[in-house]
Amino acid sequence: MASNVLRNLPSVNDLLETAPLRRLRENLSHNVVVGGVRTFLENVRRDVQDATSEMRMPEVGDLAERIAQWIIRQEESPLRPAVNATGILLHTGLGRAPLATEALDAIAAVAGGYATVELDVTTGARSHRRQAVEKLLQQLTGAEAALVVNNNAGATLLTLAALAAGKEVIVSRGQLIEIGGSYRLPEVMSASGARLREVGTTNKTRISDYASAINDSTGAILRVHTSNYIIAGFAEQPTLAEIVEAARPSQLPVIDDIGSGALIDFAQFGLTDEPIASESIRTGADVVLFSGDKLLGGPQCGIIVGRAALINKIEKHPLTRALRVDKVTLAALAATLRLYRDPEKAKVAIPLLSLLSTPAENLRNRAERLAPQMAAASAVVSHAEVVADHTYLGGGSVPTQQIPTVCIALTPAGRSVDDLATSLRAGRPCVLGRIQKDRLLLDLRSVLPSQDRMLVEAVQRLGEKAG
Predict the structure, then answer these.
(1) Which residue of 46, 205, 298, 364 has the fewest CB atoms within a 10 Å radius of its CB?
(2) Strand, coil or helix: what is 258?
(3) CA 412 – CA 55 distance, rounded (Å)
């Protein structure tokens, strides 16, 4: 049976002359279509040989249409724009913080041509790429010098390798973090060549634990902000000021990894206990490490600020070249940092800060306007209700602190809530919400106002298909 089916398979050339694949060749390259046809036919042959019952081969025209649709799907990039209606503002799966318009303009200005990444335009001599952002970071943090690498994990690895390879680094046992993607601090420490020296217990570490651990083999003291968990109850950790004071007699560098990287006080948004880079510098930390794409609201990168002598030593380490950022990241970061020179302007221009500072009443007004338009897609939505709820910042930041929000709760019609969520996720644009009590919640806390119409149209398109 299988041999008969295989003998009836049309040739690649015959398929290429059909209308669906001729049209596709006009939009895609000839080689892409030919390769797609061959791969599809190979898959058919495999399916026929593995089949336990007789398979019926479609007519040539139908087969060509199937192949054309398959090639189109294969050509779609898995990386595409999305509307984040999950409520999680720093959603790791969705690229964390969206960029400000100023950052996008800066990217466009340098990405399409050449740029003075490592060139001093005054002298014509070679310069350092860190100069693109260093003055801004000095102004905003009070640090003597700054360096930018690919992400904060890279910043931690590089700093430990440059300042403490072959030596012990003292860390409180309660700060031996693991973050997303199985990033574990002890493993990063080992990869850097430094040796971990744990002090204290999981819930209690005293300054005396640090002091008694310092010896001739000590290379640095590392304090880590436990941004994605808290230890409550019978717990104790020394302050940064106490750690700095304990390190001074031995002239040990104190490295403060503050994680998410706030440049302003997030208490104004109802989120407390997030360390601020400038405060760490003022308190006496020698090196401060933080992310650029979380609370800062910029591009993915790791930022290292601190004493000039230590930053220069870090920059000279061979890993710096392996972890360095390109002109696009530098341009976006510089534009974002410029906004912070006027904090009130930053709260409007930087999307993360704007979303956080939007009053719940504003969200409710938007939801009440959008919900009836979604309910009109009665073929897929039986009810669209405005509900108050709460969400979280995400991205490993302040996981226990809730943010008030307003959602549009969609009750599906004629389908399951999982099917509704899947259909919206697969649409154009990709729309992601969260399922709660058999309803799909579209949380406006993480939706930019400019995307409101896109949300409505995504639901309406499903209704038109279902109708």
Answers:
(1) 46
(2) strand
(3) 36
pLDDT digits (tens, 9 = 90+) for 251-307: 999 999 998 889 999 999 999 888 999 999 999 999 999 999 999 999 999 999 999
Residue from 95, 85, 100 nearest 297 by CA: 100
Report helix, strand or coil for 235.
coil
The answer to whether the beta carbons of residues 331 and 113 sit under 8 Å apart is no
Decide which of 323, 349, 375 is a domain's last residue. 349
| Pairing status of strand 254-259 against strand 287-291 | parallel
**Residue tagged 């003998």 (tokens):** 7
Buried b / exposed e over 235-255, threshold 16 CB at 10 Å, is: eebbebeebbbbbeeeebbbb
Distance of CA 161 to the CA centre of its chain: 25
Last residue within a domain, chosen from 322, 349, 376: 349
- pTM reported for the whole predicted model: 0.90
Instruction: Quote the pLDDT of residue 191.
Output: 93
pLDDT value of position 44: 84
Per the structure block, which two tokens stand in for 244?
């700095």
Q: How far apart are the first and last CA of the chain?
A: 40
Query: Residues 435-465: pLDDT tens digits?
Result: 999 999 999 999 999 999 999 999 999 988 7
Same domain, 120 and 263: yes
Decide if 290 contacts 159 (C-beta within 8 A): no
Adjacent-strand bridge partners of 126: 119
- For 289-320, what is the HEC assignment? EEECCCCCCCCCCEEEEECHHHHHHHHCCCHH
Which 8-state DSSP code applies to residue 379? T
Residue 364: which domain range? 82-92+357-466
Spans in the chain with pLDDT lower than 50: 1
Locate the DSSP E strands across 74-156: 82-84, 145-149
Cα separation, 185 vs 178, whole angstroms: 6
Same domain for 231 and 252?
yes
Structural domain count of the chain: 3
